[in-house]
Amino acid sequence: MQVSQNSKFRWIIVSLSLSIILMAIKFTAYYLTRSNAILSDALESIINVIASSFAFYSIYLSSQPKDKDHPYGHGKIEYFSSGFEGALIIIAGVWIAIEAVQHLLHPQPIQHLDWGLWLILLTVLLNGVVGYYLQKVGKSTRSEALIADGKHLMTDSLSSVLILIGLGLLILTGLQWIDSAASLVLSLVIFYNGFMLIRGSAAALMDQTDPELMESIVNILKNHKRDYWIDVHNMRIQKYGSDLHIDCHLTLPYYWDLRQVHEAVHEFEEALEKDAGGYVEFFIHVDPCLPECCKYCRLADCPVRAKAFKRDIDWSIHNLSKNQKHFVEPD
């Protein structure tokens, strides 16, 4: 089942459109209030527009079919998009911190805070709702670009909440320096979230194991397990955007002919592809069973059984990833 690109395009267009609208709202709020904290939020919204534009391009490119230069497809561009977005966020955080320090040293009067607060509150609600749905759709379609953009919008929403708190304290106390202090705290939050996006992008580009994805694949195997799937080991999963590449070793009865082996491998692949969602490419290496495998083999009519069945091997993300057959320890 091919993951639909329509929902990915639809939501990234929503994100890009929202980023442009909110940027205009935030700069309007700054024009009315002359608040440094609001200016910091407005400047960060420029990053949102650039990041959403790049995410849109990455989703378009990841949807392109495989070619001779990219035999695994173009899906990994989404991880690069996530890292690029993180780098932009860090740049924005540094920029905002510099501005905050300058305004602490040279404070400026703030005005029309009532209008500014209402406009920023509107951006909090819009960013929060769209950011939530971007992450939800991103997880269902395995789109790192959508997930990263959703996290960015959620971070932006949190940043605006910090600004609202800072401006609220300013109204209550009349202390002008609170505005710049809120901006400085905001820069630290932005910097941290940018760093986490870059870290996640680097991990994905280096094919770091995704425990949640691995767990879901293992559960699919356990739910569809056949008696002649004697053992599975050395399982590895690579993500290429929405596509998956799965390779593993599958142990089958050593006396089977090539036709039986082919049908069993096809059934194994079909079970995974049906429930994994999206396009899945496989590389299955078949191992012949050994006498030691009899202790956990449930094949009832096996003509060459050397030992009695003792117990099942509990397949998990830990033992399926090991590059060795599983054995039942002697009593």
From TrEMBL:
Belongs to the cation diffusion facilitator (CDF) transporter (TC 2.A.4) family. Coiled coil: none annotated. It is a multi-pass membrane protein. Residues 12-206 form the Cation efflux protein transmembrane domain. This is Cation diffusion facilitator family transporter. The keyword Transmembrane applies. One of its GO terms (cellular component) is plasma membrane. It comes from the Bacteria. Pfam families: Cation_efflux (PF01545), ZT_dimer (PF16916). Keywords: Membrane, Transmembrane, Transmembrane helix, Transport. GO terms for molecular function: cadmium ion transmembrane transporter activity; ferrous iron transmembrane transporter activity; zinc efflux antiporter activity. GO terms for biological process: intracellular zinc ion homeostasis. The chain crosses the membrane at residues 12-33, 45-63, 84-105, 117-134, 155-175, 181-198. It comes from Runella rosea. Residues 210-289 form the Cation efflux protein cytoplasmic domain. InterPro entries: Cation_efflux (IPR002524), Cation_efflux_CTD (IPR027470), Cation_efflux_CTD_sf (IPR036837), Cation_efflux_TM (IPR058533), Cation_efflux_TMD_sf (IPR027469), CDF_Transporter (IPR050291). It is found in: Membrane.
